[in-house]
Known about the structure:
Order of helices and strands: EHEEEEHHEEEEEE
Number of strands: 11
Structural class: alpha+beta
Helix content: 10-25%
Largest sheet: 4 strands, antiparallel
Strand content: 25-35%
Amino acid sequence: MADPWTDKPRSKDKFGKANPLDVGVLAVEVFLRNATDHPIQVNLNTVQLEVHLRNGNHQDIDWLSPEDVAAMIAHPGGAAPSQPRRIAGIPLPNGDKKAEKYAEILRPLTLDSDTVPPMGSLHGFLYFDVSHDPSVADKSVLYVPDVVVIPTKKALMFYEVPLGKPAQK
């Protein structure tokens, strides 16, 4: 399950001064549930937000690390983070005390584990730069392509979770 946080007051209550929406970043709360007797592993590095555009095309957006979002919050007028992609859950120091303060707020809220225990669940946030347009969530799908059973590494089906509200009948 995935829940996009598009409401500013709700997001402000959760993230405080480290509110991703303030800098055009959509926080998506992700819930991973494993109903099997074996642990499963999700490759978080391949998870994307697939935005469906009006012209029929789509755009795939990689998620941002909490450090990248923190840098955007600390320096809203600055350029987008240029640091290389990190392995999920391994923060690298960058020497920016202001950004580090925001990263300390975001890290515990971020989905940072890739292994879901048998009959267990995980949840946390992933962050996507939607260029100050959180309404794209209504036309988006969270795409989770790489899920395997441990220890066999048997691939499971990919997952697409629509973020928009179901159509009213």
